[in-house]
Amino acid sequence: MKILVTGSSGHLGEALIRELRKTADQPVGIDLNPSEFTTHIGSITDQAFVNSVAKEADFIIHTATLHKPHVATHTYQNFVDVNVKGTLNLLEAAVSNNIKAFIYTSTTSTFGDILTPQLNEPAVWVTEQTPSIPKNIYGVTKNAAEDLCQLFYRNHKLPGIILKTSRFFPEEDDKQELRDAYEDVNLRANELLYRRVDLEDAVSAHLLAIQQAERIGFAKYIISATSPFQDQHLPRLNTDAISVVRELYPDFGITYQQKGWKMNPQIDRVYVNKKARTELGWQPKYDFRHVLDCLKKGKDFCSLLAKAVGVKGYHPQKFTEGPYPVTDY
Prior knowledge:
- It is globular, with a radius of gyration of 20 Å.
- α3 (76-96) links the parallel β4 and β5.
- α2 packs parallel to α3.
- 45% of the residues are buried.
- The longest helix has 21 residues, at 76-96.
- By secondary structure, it is α/β, with parallel strands linked by helices.
- It has 12 helices and 9 strands.
- It has a domain at 2-172 and 198-226 and 271-285 and 305-309: Rossmann fold.
- The strands form 2 sheets. The protein has a 7-stranded parallel β-sheet with strand order 3-2-1-4-5-7-8, sandwiched between helices. A two-stranded parallel sheet has the order 6-9.
């Protein structure tokens, strides 16, 4: 089968093309930026271009997007054009060309303000039913694109799977206080407890979605590493996360001490991937247990696929402070 992957020069798009090339599938990659994983250069905002490449496909995996790192460097209109109009162009092309299913890469960022409890409140248990309160144009436009996917399933019977992925980028954190307090790899390890997914696991979820979409019809799934936390941990996570982690992983303390690493004292949310594991049969491999086991062996806990894709950045230019400009929203 032929699979069209948008954003094929980006982190996830490249990773998908790499994996699809190992199979009998025939991936077609489109992106604004040239790369060895992109077969067609063009914009998803160009309806004629989108129609021309959709004719080659049986399935579409839509990863192309303006991201949170673009909020301070791009206009609201840029976000609407790419994230909303671009998605609409692809959905219309999918219907016109009898595409079998549409897989949309969304984000846990759509939950927005709901993810930040007050200090005396429990950490937030985030499932697919958690309300979205977007706090920036990125979240608003990704939410709108999700709604378009659902509309096309309702009105045009186009099977659609929305994968709300948590962090998988290898770039350093955009918050200065976190960059100052933790080694970058230390912070990424901590995040696998509650808000990160390895790139290889993100790819496997997308490939399973392709296999299951026609059977499922339409669904949304949170794609994040399996968290060890349960409901009863939520009150303490937002006040004393270290003691909770120590209880769950008795070897955590000495392992981190040997590395000179630290655990976040507060954890404000837990992304729950149970629905994806149950309905898609997804089995993510990279979790905090994996991190500790790798540290004991002196090994890198990142997947080979994540290391092969590497660090790309989100802008052609470099910035003097931080990986990219940030705003309060």
